Amino acid sequence: MYTPGPVNLLGLNAGLNGQAKTSLGFFIGVGLAMLTLFLLFGWAGAAWVRGDMLAVVGAVGCGYILYLAIQIARSSIDLNRVREAPRVLQFRDGLIMQLCNPKAMLATLPIATIQFPAAGIHGVNLLFWSLGLAVLAFGAPGSYALMGAVVGQRLENPRLLKGFSLSMAALLVWVAITIGYEHVWLPLASGGF
């Protein structure tokens, strides 16, 4: 959950732009998405997950990641913060992005369908474990935002901040391309769809 992926990179960018507090809804959306995935996969099991479904969800997720990358690249940077602020990430953004993030599904599926049953976690215990993991998922982009806020306070050159935002946008594009290749193109090319 804490590796640099699209959700965490957006958290970092929010922190750099002084939006760590206003992006709390985004972090909550990420946590709720993970809770939803853990509970769905935990209760429904692997029977619900079809290979063709993952490719479609992956394609939607890639499109959304690219949309957010464009928004970050187009945002302007001003250390005085008197300009039009970049789009604030909201609850909906975190929820949709994490629900469509193949990395989230690939992380939750084996935990919920293999590790939970092997450890005897089911029923009410499934809810408690899923809540705990959802809190960790909330903390991942939150910690990146905090790191961005600390770094952002030390940067005094608007060009450096703009360059960093463009770098974050480029990394998001790279993540979208990687996810698209691994979780959409390869399954389609191998006839798994």
Automatic annotation (TrEMBL):
Record flagged with keyword Methyltransferase: no
Main location: membrane
Swiss-Prot/TrEMBL keywords: Cell membrane, Membrane, Transmembrane, Transmembrane helix
Gene Ontology terms: cellular component: plasma membrane
Protein's name in the database: Transporter
Membrane topology: Multi-pass membrane protein
Gene Ontology MF annotations: amino acid transmembrane transporter activity
Entry's localization field: Cell membrane
This protein's record includes keyword Membrane: yes
Listed transmembrane segments: 24-48, 54-73, 126-151, 163-181
Signal sequence bounds: none
InterPro entries: LeuE-type
Superkingdom of origin: Bacteria
Source taxonomy: Bacteria, Pseudomonadati, Pseudomonadota, Gammaproteobacteria, Oceanospirillales
Pfam families, per the entry: LysE
